Amino acid sequence: GDLLVLDAGTGVRRLGASLPADLARIDILLTHLHMDHIQGLGFFAALFRPGLEVHIWGPPSVTMGVRRRLARYLSPPLFPIRMADLSCRLELHDAPVGTFEVGGAVVTADLVCHPGPTLGYRIDDGTATLAYLPDHEPALGSLEFKPHKGWTSGLALADGVDLLVHDAQYTLEEYPSHVGWGHSALDHAIAFAGAAGAGRLVAFHHDPAHDDATLDRLFADMPEQVVGAREGAVFRLGETVLEAV
Questions:
Q1: pTM of this prediction?
Q2: Residues 102-154: pLDDT tens digits?
Q3: In this structure, are residues 193 and 168 in contact, taking their beta carbons and an 8 Å threshold?
Q4: Is the separation of the CB atoms in 58 and 70 below 8 Å?
Q5: Are 47 and 77 in contact (CB under 8 A)?
């Protein structure tokens, strides 16, 4: 009866409109606080439902907690409503680097390579495993990226998962002019998934400059284990249902 949400971009508004009336608790795992990952929070209906228990988990920072950092967005002049005015029972948590429980799932969080404090998540509910690394640059400037089992950013989180959702913003030709921006080429994501032994890769965070025709071309000859993320996609893993909004 719990709901676990990964990040809170604009798609979370549509999710809020479809929540069941008897839902008791929602947990939102934020990977980082860049605007495209939190922009939907102010438009998420769950935050305005009286009595609903909402937990927001975010990356730790040495300067201030996740509540103070999120309040910079959910307050004037960027937003007309303050966090204190929300109707839900809101709790904010600095997500620990390590393993913790959320509802019926075991979550493992670790810092990954992306500008600013950024977490990747591994989620295990006893029937399936998912790794979520939506903004990630494990290649670190290498064009011939070969993930190393000794240490590659995020690799332990993805080890042997049933489904890996991973950054694949660029082509190999585009990547050299974007080194350090915190994103991967599609080839890097595929190499990363192979090294991790992931059962399936969902390539995520498409470049906004890539139209549908470009994406169709990029994924045309991929094996069935590699799919391009798309709005509304649903994946069933064991008894777990993952839906993209």
A1: 0.94
A2: 988 999 999 999 999 999 999 999 999 999 999 999 999 887 888 887 789 99
A3: no
A4: yes
A5: no
